[in-house]
Amino acid sequence: MATIVTDARFADSTLGHAVQQSSAFARWVLVLVAVAFLGVMLILPLVIVFVSAFDKGWQTAVAALEHPDARAAIRLTALVTVIAVPSNVVFGIAAAWAITKYRFSGKSVLVTLIDLPFSVSPVIAGMIFVLLFGARGLLGPWLSGHDIQIVFAWPGIVVATMFVTLPFVARELVPLMQAQGHDDEEAAISLGAGGWQTFFRVTLPNIKWGLAYGTILCTARALGEFGAVSVVSGHIRGETNTLPLHVEILYNEYQFAAAFSVAGLLVGIALLTIAAKSVIQWGLRKSVRDDAETSSAAPGVSGQPWGEQWVSK
Amino acid sequence: MGFTVLYLSLLVLIPLSTLVLCAGRLSWEELWHTFSASRTLAAYRLSLGGALIAAGGNAIFGLLIAWVLVRYRFPGRRVLDALVDLPFALPTAVAGISLTAIYAPTGVIGGWLAGAGIQAAYSPLGIIIAMAFVSLPFVIRTAQPVLQDIDREVEEAAATLGADRLQVFARVIFPTVFPAVLAGFAMAFARAVGEYGSVVFISGNMPGRTEIVPLLIMTRLEEYNYAGAKAVALALLVLSFLMLLVINLLQAWARRSAPV
Amino acid sequence: MGIEVANVTKRFGGFVALNDVNLHVDPGALVALLGPSGSGKTTLLRVIAGLERPDVGSVKFEGEDATTRDVRERRVGFVFQHYALFRHMTVFENVAFGLRVRPRRVRPSRAEIQARVTELLQLVQLDGFARRYPPQMSGGQRQRVALARALAVEPKVLLLDEPFGALDAKVRQELRRWLRRLHEEIHVTTVFVTHDQDEALELADRVVVMNAGCIEQIGTPDKVFRDPASAFVMNFLGTVNVFHRRVSGLTPGMDAIEIQCPDELPAGSRPARIFVRPHNLEIDTRASGRPRLRGRVQFINAAGPQVKIEVLTEFGEILQVETSQKRYRALGMVKGGEVYVTPKEMRVFFDDSRPDQADSLESGSDVDTTLGRIGRPCASKKSP
What does the alpha-carbon distance between residue A98 and residue A75 come to, in Å, rounded to a whole number? Predict the structure, then answer.
């Protein structure tokens, strides 16, 4: 059986020595409780998705993904992601740039505002767009007068998704760029580089890991958003159904195998996200470490995020 | 700069203020009517109570898991560490149906619990489980870096002064991570209160019994009862703002008291 | 309380941190463990404290075996290099910690704790700081809090790891004097680790020089400085000029020894390192009849009580020479000027240790001669 040892950083080299080391018994108990808890809470749900998906054979699973409605949902989800993610990446860079490179009053208000979408319930996020663009909403009459439909159509889904995924990139870049300071940019400008040259040759390479990280998080959320999208979509099959909404419909129609097959696809994406996240986090830590060697330590650069970056730095 | 503010205004500020303004037009009578309704009260009780229990459980287990992940080396630790982020990466609807499948009376754990006379899915317990799932990573991720940074010397100092292991934990380690755990708890609570996708499947959605606030808003919207929806949403939004403030303060505190 | 460390070996993986170390500390002594980083001095301190358990060997306190005794029961006061204060506690709570974690039946009453902490804060001259938190204090103040905290449990031994390492030069000087006075006042057996020779020589009444997991020499500051037992000690304590030569010639007590690399090596000549302290090099602008090295002045630093002169010799070696301000002025040396250097006192350590060599000097002998001539270095051996 494998043994559990205390991390060398905390361990006394002599095993069983009482200073830092908990007793072997306590170690086993703690690790077992942790593994059991995570096993039941995290791993079991994953397993269940795949078990249920292949419950009626893999043909059913494949058929569920090949169904026209499923394909339409995949297309719509892809469309939403392709619009929402790049917009928020551009916004994230611009916001992080504004926050870290300029001095202005109300900066902390701006930082808090960027966090807002994280703390608002997704249902409310969807609802505010219904109130704004819906038939009985503020802009409703004007929009219907011009024959533009936003709510209960794909533009509404895009806007709602953009709202909930807005903070990801900015939240990741602000602490990173704060830690890096302006020295590199100033050096580039003093050497005669223009604004865009400075950005593409100096700033972007410096923040590439953080940017990739934020983008991954943003994409994962954009693909999987349910609450906000659910409010604005109207659930029109084959038209305004994203993948998560399609899962819901199938489930509510008791097509469990099909629902879990589509869910399996999303689980696969989630696992890929986590894998990519781990790789990028490694790169991020490295770049922060390299940076810390030359400048002062990086405040607030989490390298831990998702929990950390959820609200405030 | 201008772009940032414009983008933020169009996407966040103006839509949100619409809600506040619209709700502002509600009369006191309407608001009172909404909040005195037993259905609204029950939904708020359930959402807040459930989120409190879920976040509380996560605070305890989260600290334990963070401790294990930081302090011990065992096979599979890295995979487990990476998987902690799953609730953030997994679409909530997927989590919802999966948890329902597990905790329904026909499910793996649900069946077992049903044998013991406990109903998990379609009861407040199921809601708490779903809330706990989506808010699981917060405490772990806030406590981990703090535990990582605790100076080994500080624990040794306590030992040379005669403190036993339990005293070292209670008097030295716990006070150091406490602000971070509290911040993580607040985040978990905020997330659990607002959660919709994963809860809606497992809750059973019985008005007055297993109906959470976001679902109540959803129902009102589907009934085209916008006034009712706005009133309920407004309170939830105010709560979100408060939580945002609390979390910001807690994080500032956690940063100040974090080990150097 | 006396400490007896016997045959202690400690490995970290493949690295031998302590290699069969023996050390005796007298009750009430103030001992410095001096050595470069990686020499094992901190490990030795931690072994004494019980923070590390030796692989081999024993630690005795007052003749009683304490090797397996837990750190909590050793009654040692340990002051960590970075103080390891509890950040979330006030200074008062930090100092009171060791009293408050005692089992209920031996725990002092609230009033007793209050009195004891107050007394200790007075001792370390921090009365009035009781309610502060460590981050609000300066490095020197934190150091004293750490000391008061360690003393609160009335330790039988006080152990300090690089106690002044993280402080700036002026504060370090003050704290050194203060610690010396404090030791005279409370007289608790004290062992401290340092890599700073001045600190060890000034503060301790015994210096333990360590290198590569072994003790090189134990002695009074005067003894280790004047009479270093090994080339390492000689080199580590203070600035020293090293000549790599072959030594042949006469037995000690005779008038001269030949220290050079002649074209034809006389039988019995041995490779050796000759150490001369900068103040033991006499410098002159005129050649006298005595054996001397010719050189040119490369650099002069006259700021300080002694004038430091860098000389490039005829053999391409750079020497550090110290002379008095008075003599420097009298000689009127200039940069680039020709000078003659004569060793007044030198110390020879042979590279090979063959004590059976009939005509040889003993390794480590002091060559107190004005006739010792340092000649051309060996071709194969480049001198520093």
Answer: 35
Q: Is the pLDDT at A293 greater than 90, yes or no?
A: no
Shortest CA distance from A235: residue in chain B: B222
DSSP one-letter string for B102-116: HHSTTSHHHHHHHHT
CB contact under 8 A, A112 and B244: yes
Instruction: State the total domains in chain B.
Output: 1
Helix (H, G, I), strand (E, B) or coil at A118: helix
Whether residues C71 and A19 touch (CB distance < 8 A) is answered with yes
Minimal CA separation from A311 to chain C, in Å: 25
Q: From the list A13, A14, A18, which residue is nearest C70 (CB)?
A: A18
Q: Which of residues 217-246 of A touch B (CB under 8 A)?
A: 217, 220-221, 223-227, 230-231, 243-245
Rounded Cα–Cα distance for residues A258 and A70 (Å): 10
Q: Which residue has the higher pLDDT, A243 or C347?
A: A243
Q: How far is CA C358 from CA C244, C266, C355, C369, in A?
A: 21, 14, 8, 21
- If you measure CA to CA, which chain B residue comes closest to A99? B1
C23 - beta bridge partners?
Answer: C5
Cα–Cα distance, B6 to A299 (Å, whole number): 29
The range of the structural domain enclosing residue B91 comes to 2-257
The CATH number given to whatever domain includes residue B104 is 1.10.3720.10
For residue A295, pLDDT over 50 is answered with no
Q: Which residue in chain B has the smallest CA separation from C101?
A: B163
pLDDT in tens, C136-147: 898 889 989 999
How far away is chain C from the Cα of A277, in angstroms, using its nearest Cα?
A: 34
* A300: chain B residues, CB-CB within 8 Å: 255
pTM for the full predicted model: 0.81
Query: Ramachandran region of residue C246, left (φ > 0), alpha (ψ -120 to 50) or beta?
Result: beta
Chain B residues whose beta carbon lies within 8 Å of the beta carbon of residue C146: 157
pLDDT for residue B94: 94
Residue C274 corresponds to which tokens in the numbers above? 């000759």
The residues with which C18 forms a beta bridge, in sequence order, are C10
Contact yes or no for B89/A220 (Cβ under 8 A): yes
Q: Are C341 and C281 in contact (CB under 8 A)?
A: yes
Question: C346-350 and C338-343 as β-strands: parallel, antiparallel, unpaired?
Answer: unpaired
Mean pLDDT over each residue of chain C, to the nearest integer:
82
**B50-54, B111-115, C56-60, C300-304: which is most confident:** B50-54
Confidence of residue C370 (pLDDT cuts 50, 70, 90): very low
Q: Measuring CA to CA, which residue among A127, A138, A152 is closest to residue B214?
A: A127
* Residue to test with chain A: of C47, C53, C68, most A Cβ within 10 A: C53
Separation in Å, CA of B162 to nearest CA in chain C: 4
Q: What is the pLDDT of residues C231-278, one digit of tens each?
A: 888 888 888 888 877 666 544 443 344 555 444 455 566 677 778 888
In this structure, the number of other CB atoms found within 10 A of the CB of residue C172 comes to 19
With contact defined as 3+ CB pairs under 8 Å, the chains touching C are A, B
Shortest alpha-carbon distance between residue B32 and chain A (Å): 20
